[in-house]
C-alpha cells in the first residue's frame, strides 16, 4: 500500500537537516537545515526532514478484550502518499491509518500512549462516551503530553459502531499528516444472520507543493479562514486504494472523513445498490437505499454496497467542481453470489434506543448557538480591501444568500495568509452573547437538552461548519425545520451556511465537555465552547 521498500529516495528540495536521534523522529526540531525558509511573517516551518525515519507500516487489526492494555505511540515515518516521493508523515504505531482497535461493546481497555513526536500531543477518542479525564482535550481534561512522555487512557465502549481516534492538539497538522485510527465496537451478533465483510476507508486530502506538504508553521495555523483544502485525495493514506470482491458480494464500508476541511460526497458507481446502515456511532432503525452520502470532517457513514453481476465499482467524490476517484473495488472471476436477499444483522435496537429522543421533537429549544466569524482588520488591509463592504468581496456576492457548502478553496491566497491570529471563528450563545469558551451551560444528568445551531448567512465568510460534541451522542432532530430523514445517534452535525439544525442531546455522561467545529483550522481559531453534565 505504500512506498515501503523503495530503494531510491527523492530528497526534499533544499532540506539538508539530519536527525541523529534514531528512527523514531525524536530529536532537535530546532534544527531545520539551511533550506527551510521562514514565512513572510517570521513563522518557523515544522521539521520536514526524512533522514533516519522508518518506513510506514501496514494497518493492523487489533482484537482487544475487556481488561486488556494496549501500547500506542505517535511517531514520524517516511511514506509516499501517492505524490511521487517519500515525505515525512505522522503515524500511530508506525501505521497510517493507525491500528484498527476491535473491541466488544461494554468492555474497558487501557491504552499506554507514548509521544514520540517532536511536538506535544494528546489523543481524543472520537465519539466514545468515556470518563471525562480520558477525553484527550489539552488544558481541559489533561496537560499536553510532551515529547518522550507517556499518558494512560482508560477507554469505555457503551455503544456499538464505528469510532476513531486522533490528536487534539494542532490537529490541523498532526491529523493532516496521518494521525488517525479506527475503533470498531462490536455488539452482540445474532445466529443465522449475516455480517458482511467490512472495509474501513479513511478519506482525507493533502495540500502538496514543491514535492512536500504546503508549509505548516510552528507558531500559528495558516488557512484559518476556510481550512486547509488539499490538492491530493487520499483513501487510507494512498492515492489509489484498490480491493477485490466477487460478483454480487455485499461489502460493508465504514467511511470516515478525516480531512481538515473538505466535505466528501461519496457515490459507488457501478454498484448494484448502496444502503445506508448507520451514521457516526449509531445505526439507523431501517437501512435506506441511497445514491450518495455527504460527510463533513469527522462524520462517518456505514454503507453496504452490493457488487454487480459483472464489472467493477468505483468509489467517487462528486461535487460541483467535478469528480475524484477515491477507490476501486475490482470484480473477481468467481460465480455470482446472491447476497441481496440474505437476512442481514438487524438493528431494531436502534429504534428502541432513539425513540425517547425522537419523542422530544415538540419540546422547546433550551439554547441557541450562532456560528459567526471575526476577521482582523489587518487581513482586509493585506488583501488591499481596506474597509470595503465585505458583501462586495470576491466569491461572496451571490444575491440569494451564501452557497450552502464550500467544496473547494477558491480564495487560496487569502485563505493561506489568514492565520489563527487574524481570524476568529465564533460560537455565540444567542441569549447571553457569550462567545466560545465563555459558554458553559450546565445540564441535569439524564435531561434531554435541545440545542439549536444557526449558521449565520450574513457573516463575513459564511461556510459550512461540522459541530462535534464530546462525551455524549445526540439525535439530529430537524434541518431547516424539516424532520431529519436519517435518524441515528451522531456526535457531529454538518451545518450548511445559512442553515439551522436542532439536536436533541441526552445528557448522559457527567463532566465538562468540549463542543467545537471539526474543521481543524477553525478549532485552532477558537471555534469551541464547553457544556457541563452534572453528576447524577
Ligand atoms: Cu467551522
Task: Jot down its keywords.
six-stranded mixed β-sheet, Immunoglobulin-like, 536 residues, globular, seven-stranded mixed β-sheet, mainly beta, 35 strands, single chain, disordered N terminus, binds copper (II) ion
Mean pLDDT: 89
Helical amount among residues, as a percent range?
A: under 10%
Distance between the termini: 48 Å
The total count of helices amounts to: 5
CATH architecture of the largest domain: Sandwich
Q: Spans of 5+ residues with little confidence (pLDDT < 50)?
A: 1-35, 386-398
**What is the CATH T-level topology of the largest domain?**
Immunoglobulin-like
- The helix-and-strand class reads mainly beta
Determine Rg (CA atoms, Å): 23 Å
The name of the CATH superfamily of the largest domain reads Cupredoxins -  blue copper proteins
Supply the number of structural domains.
3
Helix and strand arrangement:
Blueprint: E1 54-55, E2 61-63, E3 69-79, E4 87-92, E5 100-104, E6 108-115, E7 123-126, E8 150-156, E9 161-167, H1 171-174, E10 181-186, E11 197-206, E12 208-209, E13 212-213, E14 232-235, E15 242-245, E16 250-257, E17 264-269, E18 273-279, E19 282-289, E20 293-295, E21 300-306, E22 313-319, E23 322-331, H2 348-358, E24 367-375, H3 377-382, H4 412-417, E25 423-429, E26 442-443, E27 448-455, E28 465-469, E29 474-479, E30 482-483, E31 489-490, E32 492-495, E33 500-506, E34 511-517, H5 520-524, E35 528-533
Parallel strand pairs: 1-3, 2-5, 3-6, 5-10, 11-16, 15-23, 24-27, 26-35
Antiparallel strand pairs: 3-4, 6-8, 7-9, 9-10, 11-14, 12-13, 16-21, 17-20, 17-22, 18-19, 18-21, 22-23, 24-25, 27-33, 28-32, 28-34, 29-30, 29-31, 29-33, 34-35
The protein binds copper (II) ion (CU).
Amino acid at each position: 500500500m505504500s512506498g515501503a521498500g523503495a530503494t531510491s529516495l527523492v530528497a526534499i528540495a533544499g532540506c539538508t537537516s539530519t536527525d541523529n536521534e534514531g528512527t523514531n523522529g525524536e530529536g532537535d526540531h530546532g534544527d531545520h537545515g539551511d533550506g527551510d525558509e521562514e514565512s513572510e511573517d517570521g513563522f518557523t516551518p515544522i521539521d520536514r526532514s526524512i533522514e533516519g525515519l522508518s518506513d510506514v507500516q501496514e494497518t493492523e487489526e487489533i482484537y482487544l478484550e475487556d481488561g486488556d492494555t494496549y501500547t500506542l505511540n505517535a511517531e514520524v515515518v517516511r511514506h509516499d502518499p501517492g505524490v511521487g516521493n517519500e515525505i515525512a508523515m505522522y503515524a500511530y504505531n508506525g501505521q497510517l491509518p493507525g491500528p484498527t482497535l476491535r473491541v466488544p461493546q461494554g468492555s474497558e481497555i487501557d491504552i499506554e500512549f507514548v509521544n514520540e513526536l517532536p511536538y506535544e500531543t494528546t489523543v481524543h477518542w472520537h465519539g466514545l462516551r468515556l470518563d471525562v479525564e480520558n477525553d484527550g482535550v489539552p488544558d481541559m481534561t489533561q496537560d499536553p503530553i510532551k515529547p518522550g512522555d507517556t499518558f494512560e487512557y482508560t477507554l469505555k465502549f457503551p455503544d456499538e459502531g464505528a469510532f476513531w481516534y486522533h490528536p487534539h492538539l494542532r490537529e490541523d497538522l498532526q491529523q493532516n499528516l496521518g494521525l488517525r485510527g479506527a475503533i470498531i465496537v462490536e455488539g452482540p451478533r445474532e445466529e443465522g444472520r449475516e455480517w458482511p465483510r467490512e472495509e474501513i476507508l479513511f478519506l482525507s486530502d493533502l495540500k502538496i507543493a514543491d514535492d512536500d506538504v504546503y508549509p505548516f508553521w510552528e507558531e500559528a495555523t495558516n488557512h484559518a479562514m476556510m481550512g486547509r483544502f488539499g490538492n491530493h485525495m487520499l483513501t487510507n493514506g494512498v492515492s489509489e486504494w484498490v480491493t477485490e470482491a466477487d460478483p454480487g458480494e455485499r461489502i460493508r464500508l465504514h467511511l470516515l472523513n478525516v480531512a481538515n476541511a473538505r466535505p466528501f460526497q461519496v457515490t459507488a458507481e457501478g454498484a448494484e445498490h448502496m444502503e445506508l446502515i448507520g451514521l457516526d456511532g449509531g445505526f439507523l432503525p431501517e437501512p435506506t437505499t441511497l445514491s450518495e452520502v455527504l460527510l463533513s470532517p469527522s462524520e462517518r457513514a456505514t454503507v453496504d454496497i452490493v457488487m454487480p453481476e459483472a464489472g467493477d465499482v468505483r468509489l467517487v467524490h462528486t461535487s460541483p467542481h467535478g469528480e475524484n476517484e477515491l477507490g476501486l473495488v475490482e470484480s473477481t472471476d468467481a460465480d455470482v453470489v446472491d447476497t441481496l436477499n440474505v437476512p442481514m444483522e438487524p438493528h431494531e435496537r436502534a429504534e428502541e434506543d432513539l425513540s425517547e429522543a425522537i419523542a422530544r421533537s415538540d419540546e422547546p429549544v433550551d439554547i441557541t448557538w450562532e456560528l459567526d466569524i471575526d476577521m482582523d482588520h489587518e487581513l482586509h488591509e493585506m488583501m488591499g480591501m481596506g474597509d470595503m463592504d465585505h458583501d462586495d468581496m470576491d466569491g461572496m456576492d451571490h444575491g440569494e444568500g451564501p452557497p450552502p457548502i464550500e467544496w473547494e478553496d477558491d480564495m487560496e491566497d487569502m485563505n493561506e495568509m489568514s492565520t489563527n491570529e487574524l481570524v476568529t471563528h465564533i460560537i455565540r450563545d444567542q441569549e447571553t452573547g457569550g462567545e466560545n469558551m465563555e459558554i458553559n451551560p450546565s445540564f441535569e444528568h439524564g435531561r434531554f437538552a435541545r440545542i439549536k445551531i444557526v449558521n449565520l448567512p450574513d457573516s463575513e465568510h459564511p461556510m459550512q461548519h461540522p459541530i462535534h460534541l464530546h462525551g455524549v451522542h445526540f439525535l439530529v432532530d430537524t434541518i431547516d425545520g424539516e424532520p431529519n430523514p436519517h435518524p441515528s445517534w451522531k456526535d457531529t452535525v454538518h451545518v450548511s451556511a445559512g442553515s439551522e439544525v436542532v439536536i436533541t442531546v441526552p445528557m448522559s455522561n457527567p463532566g465538562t465537555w468540549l463542543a467545537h467545529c471539526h474543521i481543524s483550522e477553525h478549532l485552532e481559531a477558537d471555534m469551541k465552547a464547553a457544556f457541563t453534565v452534572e453528576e447524577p
